[in-house]
UniProtKB/TrEMBL annotation:
One function term, GO molecular function aspect: proton-transporting ATP synthase activity, rotational mechanism
Subcellular location: Cell membrane; Endomembrane system
Annotated Gene Ontology cellular component terms: endomembrane system; plasma membrane; proton-transporting ATP synthase complex
Taxonomic placement: Bacteria, Bacillati, Bacillota, Bacilli, Lactobacillales
Domain spans labelled ATP synthase F1 complex delta/epsilon subunit N-terminal: 4-85
Subunit structure: F-type ATPases have 2 components, CF(1) - the catalytic core - and CF(0) - the membrane proton channel. CF(1) has five subunits: alpha(3), beta(3), gamma(1), delta(1), epsilon(1). CF(0) has three main subunits: a, b and c.
Name recorded for this polypeptide: ATP synthase epsilon chain
Organism: Streptococcus hyointestinalis
Keyword Transmembrane applies: no
UniProt membrane topology term: Peripheral membrane protein
Keyword hit for Hydrolase: yes
Ranges of residues in domain ATP synthase epsilon subunit C-terminal: 90-135
PANTHER family per record: ATP SYNTHASE DELTA/EPSILON CHAIN (PTHR13822), ATP SYNTHASE EPSILON CHAIN, CHLOROPLASTIC (PTHR13822:SF10)
Its biological purpose: Produces ATP from ADP in the presence of a proton gradient across the membrane.
Amino acid sequence: MAEMTVQVVTPDGLKYDHRATFIHAVTREGEIGILPGHINLIAPLKVSELKVRRVDDDNHVDWIAVNGGIIEIKDNVVTIVADSAERERDIDVSRAERAKLRAERAIEVAKQEHRPDEVQRAQVALRRALNRINVGNKY
C-alpha cells in the first residue's frame, strides 16, 4: 500500500508524526486532498482542521486543529509548520468554548469602540476557538 509521512511542527516542537494514506487540508486557495505520489507543493493554510487517514486501518482517522501555517509536500513527506496545532484527543472543549465566548465579547466591545484592529484580532481568536471546538467534538 502506498503511504506518506505526515509531520506537524509548531514552535513547541513536533506535535504529530505518523504514516498516512490520505490527508485533507484547507489552504488559502481552497481544499486539498493529498494522496501518496502528490506533486511537490508549498501552500499557506487557513485556520482549519487537518484530516489524516492512517495506514493501519481505513477507519482510523486523526483530526488536528491547525491554526494557519504552511504545508509542504515533497517526495511523500507532508510537513505542516503552524503557530499551534492540537490533536482532537488533546483539546479541552470547555476551555475552547470559554475562548469562543471571550472572543465574541471582544468583537462586540471593539465594534462599539470603533477599533477595527481589535475587531480583526478577536475574529481570528474566534476562528481558532471554533476550529478547536469542531475538532475536539470529533473525538
